[in-house]
Design brief:
Layout: H1 2-10, E1 14-17, H2 32-45, E2 49-56, H3 66-82, E3 87-90, E4 98-101, E5 106-109, H4 116-132, E6 136-140, H5 160-169, E7 175-179, H6 181-185, H7 191-198, E8 202-207, E9 209-212, H8 214-220, E10 228-231, H9 240-249, E11 256-258, H10 281-284, H11 291-306
Parallel strand pairs: 1-2, 2-3, 3-6, 6-7, 7-8, 8-11
Antiparallel strand pairs: 4-5, 9-10
């Protein structure tokens, strides 16, 4: 309820139900309907839409997580249908197997695309279950690798080339994207061209920006801390006027949910673990509460292009 209160206080009209896997609605007992109804009623009382249920952002295709992930996504679909939310979101995950690079003696990932049949085998039954209830599945494409790149990550949907393969093979029209331009910018991919190609599969949007530090890039290359950073909308390099225009032309029918927490400045900084002075950013910024300031910057950035679009 606290996040709903904050969303109302800051003037937001929609919110994604995050951390669903940690909520009472995800428990194995039979009380989930009552709790889901309470959340829906609380949102309605504040005149806030729940735009999506964020089921799980881990690796459902890791054998140690598979059964729990299947149960969580099943429950999330049931909850979404119960409270009339169209979209359940999360990570698609990936099959992680390694092989020895004989030349270097190091382990490397086997190509994710080799495991497309396993990805389809896990998700298509869930998608058919969701379709029967009028719910869509939307995969966020955060690569989950170092430097915001799809290197040693665990998300099959970390690269658009793999989206293309998946969408070509699946027969489930209700599987799509939880789209976020920040992940594309960090891979030097044009978000506008990406919308033009995959717009029909964009079911939910995380409004998050990114900034490429060209000075660091030219000095150290792409695999260096600080070269690519996630930012609040308005503080990065995304062209939101063009993004929103392209989304509307593609028929996008949901909300823009600002994803906070990631901005290197506009976030809530914890107190330092020790009183000794330190030049590190975390200690320099310790104690400052800037998350809400960043959310309002993002809100003011997006509002001129979204007014009247509901």
């Amino acid at each position: 309820m606290a996040e709903l209160d904050r969303a109302q206080r800051l003037g937001f009209q929609s919110i994604e139900w995050v951390a669903f896997d940690q909520s009472p609605a995800a428990a194995s007992d039979g009380n989930w309907r009552a709790y889901a109804g309470q959340i829906a009623a609380a949102a309605q009382a504040r005149d806030i839409r729940i735009s999506a249920v964020a089921a799980l952002y881990r690796n459902p295709l890791d054998p140690r997580q598979t059964e729990r992930a299947r149960a969580l996504f099943t429950r999330a679909v049931e909850v979404a249908a119960h409270i009339h939310v169209r979209t359940v979101a999360g990570f698609a995950g990936a099959v992680i197997e390694t092989q020895l690079n004989e030349r270097g003696g190091n382990l490397v990932y086997r190509a994710f695309e080799d495991y497309l049949p396993q990805v389809l085998a896990f998700w298509e039954p869930l998608a058919r279950f969701a379709a029967d209830k009028g719910v869509r599945l939307a995969f966020e494409h955060c690569p989950q690798g170092a430097w915001h790149l799809p290197v040693m990550g665990y998300n099959f949907f970390g690269r658009p080339a793999l989206w293309e393969m998946f969408f070509h093979e699946t027969k489930c029209a209700n599987i799509g994207l939880e789209w976020d331009p920040s992940h594309l910018i960090c891979q030097f991919i044009d978000p506008i061209a990406n919308i033009h190609k995959f717009g029909a599969r964009i079911f939910h949007v995380h409004a998050k920006d990114a900034f490429i530090n060209r000075r660091l890039l030219e000095e150290y290359g792409i695999c260096h801390p600080g070269v690519a950073e996630h930012r609040m909308p308005g503080l990065g390099q995304a062209n939101w006027a063009e993004i929103i225009h392209a989304l509307l032309r593609a028929g996008y029918d949901s909300d823009l949910n600002i994803e906070g927490w990631h901005d290197p400045v506009f976030r809530d900084w914890e107190e330092p673990p020790a009183p000794e002075p330190s030049p590190s950013a975390s200690k320099t910024m310790a104690g400052r509460k800037l998350e809400e300031a960043g959310l309002l910057i993002a809100k003011r950035t997006l509002e001129p292009y979204t007014a009247g679009t509901e």
